[in-house]
Write a structure and sequence with these properties.
By secondary structure, this protein is of the alpha/beta class. About 40% of the residues lie in helices and about 10% in strands. A hairpin with a 5-residue loop joins strand 2 and strand 3. Helix 2 packs across helix 3. Keywords: Cell membrane, Membrane, Protein transport, Transmembrane, Transmembrane helix, Transport.
Length: about 220
C-alpha cells in the first residue's frame, strides 16, 4: 500500500508584529524611566533602623557635606521653572534662557544667589574648578537657605504631598545642622525627614518584629 504524502507546510513565522511590540515597549520604558539625578557631593549618612523609603517625587532636599556646604535640590521641571523665574525676577539676576534651562534640567545648587548666573552658565565640572560650589549660606547674617525654602514652597503651590528632607554627612558640623533646623522652624515647617542608611534592627525589638511581619516604619 503506497504511503500517503502529507502536504508540507511552511515553517516561516512572521515576526513583524512581535518586533513592533518589542520596540513599542522599549520606547515606553525609555520615555517613562526617571533617572536618578547626580549627587552634588559624596555624603556618608548616619545609620538608623527606620525602614521608611524616601519618596521619588514631591521632595525638597538639602544635602550637607562633611565641611558644612549646603546644596539645594527639588524635583519637577515645571516647578523648578517657576522657582528660577521667581528668583530671577526678585533678585534681578538677568538670567538668559540657557541659564534658566540649566537650572530646570539640573540637579542641585550649591552657591550663593549673587553667583547664581555665573554658576548656571558653567558645566558641573567647571563649577568645582572655579570654586563656585561653596554651598548656600545659612548663617543669620545671610540666610539664603531660608530664601530657597520659601521660594521653593511657593513654586510647589501648596502641594499636600510635599516633603522636606535633610541629607547630612556623619561629619557635618552640628552648628550647620542647627542653622538649617532653625530655618525650618522659622518657616513653621515642623515635619522633616532625615536621610539615613538602613541598619539591622536589634533582635527582639519592635522594629525587628515589624520587619519580620513585612511592615515598614511610619
Amino acid at each position: 500500500m503506497p504511503k500517503v504524502k502529507m502536504p508540507r507546510k511552511s515553517t516561516l513565522v512572521d515576526m513583524t508584529a512581535m518586533c513592533d511590540v518589542a520596540f513599542l515597549l522599549l520606547t515606553f520604558f525609555m520615555l517613562a524611566t526617571k533617572f536618578k539625578p547626580d549627587e552634588p557631593v559624596t555624603v556618608v549618612t548616619p545609620s538608623s533602623i527606620n525602614t521608611k523609603l524616601l519618596p521619588d517625587s514631591d521632595v525638597i532636599m538639602l544635602t550637607v557635606d562633611k565641611d558644612g556646604k549646603i546644596f539645594f535640590s527639588m524635583d519637577g521641571q515645571p516647578k523648578r521653572q517657576q522657582l528660577i523665574n521667581d528668583l530671577d525676577q526678585q533678585y534681578k539676576l538677568g538670567l538668559n534662557e540657557k541659564e534658566k534651562n540649566n537650572f530646570i534640567i539640573g540637579s542641585s545648587i550649591g552657591t550663593d544667589i549673587k553667583s547664581l548666573k555665573t554658576y548656571l552658565d558653567m558645566k558641573p565640572e567647571e563649577r568645582k574648578k572655579a570654586g563656585l560650589e561653596k554651598g548656600i549660606p545659612s548663617d543669620s547674617a545671610n540666610n539664603e537657605v531660608a530664601v530657597w525654602i520659601e521660594y521653593a514652597r511657593s513654586a510647589q503651590g501648596g502641594n499636600p504631598k510635599l516633603q522636606y528632607c535633610i541629607k547630612a554627612d556623619n561629619g557635618t558640623p552640628y552648628p550647620v545642622i542647627k542653622d538649617i533646623l532653625d530655618t525650618f522652624k522659622e518657616k513653621k515647617i515642623q515635619k522633616l525627614n532625615l536621610v539615613t542608611n538602613l541598619e539591622a534592627a536589634p533582635a527582639g525589638s519592635a522594629a525587628a518584629i515589624a520587619r519580620a511581619e513585612g511592615k515598614s516604619d511610619e
